[in-house]
Design a protein that fits this description.
Elements (H helix, E strand, L loop, with lengths): L27 H12 L22 H16 L2 H4 L4 H18 L6 H16 L4 H6 L3 E7 L4 E5 L2 E4 L7 H13 L11 E5 L5 E5 L9 E5 L8 H6 L5 H12 L4 E5 L5 H9 L8 E5 L11 E5 L13 H8 L6 E4 L6 H10 L6 E5 L3 H13 L7 H11 L2 E7 L5 E13 L2 E15 L5 E7 L6 H7 L20
Helix pairs in contact: 4-5, 11-12, 12-14, 13-14
The protein binds adenosine-5'-triphosphate and magnesium ion.
The site of magnesium ion (MG) has 3 residues, from α10.
Length: 486
């Protein structure tokens, strides 16, 4: 049985459609007994601090809230460990009764079909990833941030809000984390207290636990977008104007090397993914990531993922190893999910040696900053290379740098498209083709801004033209009204 209490000590039995009470010796009754025993009237028994009252979550999904609430109440009453030895059917029968009871308590009427669905959902929660399940299923949530058992934030429409979801305690949270990472053959414990993993649906997971996380386990989930955001969508939601999208499509198609720069969570991977759609079907693409997130649509794609060290601290395969290996796989293009260290050197070399049209992302605040970061990363490769040599390698490898930002209103926007035009002395020359013109903030806190052409016609226009890709000059005309600059 799933709740502690004397087996069979049923003060009364209740029936439910299709399942005679007699066939369920451990069913609802002990739960009802326990109701009185543990939490008194459940509606008046918040078992742990609830950080955010419902009123503070005006945009919350009612169904999600109800599921979260029922799930919390169930957690207060049931013995989670016992769940593991029961079948879904057994648990389902028990839960059906207790849910009906709880709905009555909170005065929430549901028809039979709705109740059945709710029980199914709650089962998923209990047998799946616990309190995370309703959040994972809610498509409007893009990120889940669990800061120890009782504090769970989400991101919705670019804004962070606190939810009512919580875990029974930190051990429960740790169990869920372990369930996630062990499913991927990874582990997390005191000796190896942080891990990157993925959910079966592709969502990216990071977990860090004590002693590194001071207050308890911390779990961050970047949810996998079921329908990936493509270029058209980026234009329609105002992330960039069509003129810019058209330029980027041509840049990718015409095999220019692109560096996508941005802060954490600014939309770099999303942009990389969207841009990759312009790569031709006949090209051989190798993607390299720490945690595979990219969803390239082409058929000829090879996905490589790094591997952390094993228990003995051996066997690590890092991005640099994979970039080097990819060069022996006859790639036409290499797409590196994120450039963070010594692999920068190998990636730039690949870009300089025939793998045109390769792309990567980098954490930086401006295109200029992105180039300096690259230079630092070349230094991390352990090779003795002068700053001038490093810069000239960058200048010949990268042709386009785009900058992404998550603005104060939560919107993610492209805020610069710049072109690397060469070197002057020891300086890499960078010129902006599209520049973000910020005008202010409206009464609702929305940023009023527009991405505008600077008037400079990019040098790559000629390069692309010579390869049959013609960008109309009006795209770069600052006096022409921009189509969909939100
Ligand atoms: N233009 C956009 N508008 C709305 N949401 C977006 C946009 N771009 C990305 N997102 C969403 O924002 C979240 C972060 O995006 P993404 O993973 O691409 O960021 P990132 O810069 O790669 O983050 P990290 O630095 O953590 O790797 C995702 O949930 C994604 O679906
Ligand atoms: Mg990313």
């Amino acid at each position: 049985m799933i709740w502690p209490g004397k087996k069979g000590a049923a003060p009364h039995a209740r029936s439910s459609p299709g399942a005679p009470a007699a066939s369920r010796p451990s069913a609802a009754a002990p739960a009802i007994a326990r109701l009185g025993a543990k939490s008194a009237p459940a509606a008046a028994a918040p078992a742990a601090p609830r950080a955010a009252p419902a009123a503070e979550q005006p945009r919350g999904d009612i169904k999600t809230d109800l599921k979260v609430e029922l799930h919390q109440k169930l957690l207060d009453r049931i013995n989670l460990a016992a769940l593991e030895s029961m079948t879904r059917e057994q648990v389902g029968r028990d839960i059906g009764d207790i849910v009906a009871e709880m709905l009555k308590e909170i005065n929430h009427a549901l028809n039979l079909a709705e109740r059945k669905q709710l029980v199914e959902d709650i089962l998923d929660e209990l047998l799946g990833l616990g309190p995370l399940e309703p959040l994972l299923k809610d498509a409007s949530i893009t990120e889940i941030m669990v800061n120890t058992a009782f504090i769970v934030f989400i991101e919705r429409a670019g804004r962070i809000e606190e939810t009512k979801a919580r875990f029974a305690d930190n051990r429960h949270l740790l169990r869920i984390i372990q369930k996630i990472v062990s499913g991927m053959g990874r582990r997390i414990d005191e000796s190896s207290p942080m891990v990157d993993a993925r959910l079966p649906d592709g969502s990216r997971v990071n977990a860090i636990i004590p002693p590194l996380a001071v207050d308890g386990p911390i779990l961050t989930i970047r949810k996998f977008a079921k329908t990936p955001i493509n270029m058209e969508k980026l234009v329609s939601i105002g992330a960039m104007p069509e003129a810019c999208a058209e330029t980027l499509r041509a840049v990718v198609k015409g095999r220019r090397n692109v560096l996508i720069s941005g802060g954490t969570g600014s939309g770099k991977t999303t942009m990389l993914n969207a841009m990759s759609a312009s790569i031709g079907e006949h090209e051989r693409i190798v993607t390299i990531e720490d945690s595979a997130e990219l969803q390239l649509q082409q058929r000829h794609v090879i996905r490589l993922e790094t591997r952390p060290a094993n228990m003995e601290g051996r066997g690590e395969i890092n991005q640099r190893d994979l970039v080097k290996n990819s060069l022996r796989m006859r790639p036409d293009r290499i797409v590196l999910g994120e450039c963070r260290g010594g692999e920068a050197f190998d990636m730039l070399q690949a870009m300089n040696t025939g793998h045109d049209g390769s792309m990567t992302t980098i954490h930086a605040n401006t295109p200029r900053d992105a180039l300096s970061r690259l230079e630092q990363m070349i230094g991390m490769s352990g090779l003795e290379i002068s700053p001038k040599a490093a810069r000239s390698q960058i200048a010949s490898a990268i042709q386009v740098v785009i900058q992404l930002e998550r603005l104060s209103d939560g919107k993610r926007r492209l805020t610069s498209l710049a072109e690397v035009t060469g070197m002057e002395g020891e300086t890499v020359l960078l010129q902006e083709i599209f520049r973000f013109d910020r005008q202010g903030i409206d009464a609702q806190g929305n940023v009023i801004a527009e991405l505008k052409p600077t008037g400079i016609r990019p040098k790559f226009m000629e390069y692309l033209g010579a390869r049959g890709i013609h960008l109309p000059p009006h795209l770069f005309d600052p006096y022409r009204r921009m189509d969909s600059a939100a």
